[in-house]
Amino acid sequence: MITEDKVTEIFCMADDFCKFFDTMVAKYTLKPTGKRNYHRNSVMSKAEVMLIMILFHDSGYRCFKHFYLEKVCKHLRHLFPKVVSYNRIVELEREVVIPLALFIKKVLLGKCTGISFVDSTPLRVCKNQRIHIHKVFKGIAQRGKCSMG
């Protein structure tokens, strides 16, 4: 599990990113004309929801519900003072999927060190039954060949 200092650091980065992202979205999206906005602001910020999702993927839990109810609501309550119900956090996840993907891509993605690992499992290119309908390796596929050569 990530230390509390690292959690605070990730939260600060996520909060700064969310502020920047929200200003860009407000600047470049179309404004509704004449319609009233019935959307209520959430108690939890987008950065908190993003942080919970990042912590879930770093934890060993397989079920988000158990992670949220057991770990976040009980043991990490001091880090998230305004927790919401499980149903509400699932609704809030939907709103932060795109900002989370952009945040991970732009901020949290590591740099390539020049060493890359490639899975070298051979994939059969031409099975005799599928020779005439195979489209992926069309033109280079032959009988008995695999993706390794």
UniProtKB/TrEMBL annotation:
This is Transposase DDE domain-containing protein. Residues 110-149 form the Transposase DDE domain. InterPro entries: Tnp_DDE_dom. It holds the Pfam family DDE_Tnp_1_3.
